[in-house]
């Protein structure tokens, strides 16, 4: 925690000195929660919804963006699971963060699927295809699948990825389970065009924010997913998004202090590498009490 706060610089010091408290979110995730009284209270006060970043890959035996990581997240009963997709040199869409395939010298975009499918990841897992991931994801339909379309050199390739994703989701009858996100504004606009009505989140990790909430809303984007570095240094962006009817996602939320900030600023979703710990903390009496003090 101290290391992460140090990395935040002056703002981290402000958190350390007491930026802890309260938020609210239109909470509706009762179907994803246990019957534990504290968790029911959490839903009632509308906490941020929790997303497993690249699946729950911090659990023993898992690697990020693998079927095991997805299954681990499914067991937790979260709002959603975020995963990354790339198109290989021979046109296969794979679930991998990239550009390097973990533990190898292979590249998710410039190497072939034939080469990548033989790779063994550090904890013994394999790189899944998009189809393999979605087939597994469909087994727990109440958990949303937030698909990050990685930026590619060609807008044509990004469009092809979105087209394939939408087509496959329709084939599996699970488009209503899919949400889209990308650092590529082109990919976001294509998702909004090809899957109207589905959530589309624009990603950003730079203080040089180039997309306004107004322009995003005009282009069919439904949310702004910004790193903690951005939102915590420029908290007015949260209100800007809300004023245009856009939802907000904060990442990567791995420590209680950052959860407190999200609650205080009424962030809608938080994405974490440790969804088990963050779920427990969100259900704590401290956070529930804090959320009740925040006006919606």
Give an overview in words.
With 296 residues, this protein is of the alpha/beta class. The chain is 39% helix and 16% strand. It contains 14 helices and 9 strands. The chain has helices at residues 2-7, 10-16, 37-44, 67-76, 113-116, 130-137, 155-171, 185-194, 213-218, 228-233, 236-243, 256-264, 275-282, 285-292, and strands at residues 49-53, 80-87, 93-95, 144-149, 178-182, 200-204, 223-227, 247-251, 269-272. An 8-stranded parallel beta barrel has the order 1-2-4-5-6-7-8-9, surrounded by 6 helices. Strand 5, helix 8 and strand 6 (200-204) form a beta-alpha-beta unit. Helix 4 packs parallel to helix 6 and helix 7 packs parallel to helix 8 (185-194). It starts with a helix and ends with a helix.
How many distinct beta strands? 9
* pLDDT < 50 stretches: 7-44
What do the pLDDT scores average to? 88
Main sheet: strand order: 1-2-4-5-6-7-8-9
**Structural class category:** alpha/beta
Separation of the first and last Cα atoms: 29 Å
Topology, element by element:
Layout (H helix, E strand, L loop, with lengths): L1 H6 L2 H7 L20 H8 L4 E5 L13 H10 L3 E8 L5 E3 L17 H4 L13 H8 L6 E6 L5 H17 L6 E5 L2 H10 L5 E5 L8 H6 L4 E5 H6 L2 H8 L3 E5 L4 H9 L4 E4 L2 H8 L2 H8 L4
Parallel strand pairs: 1-2, 1-9, 2-4, 4-5, 5-6, 6-7, 7-8, 8-9
Antiparallel strand pairs: 2-3
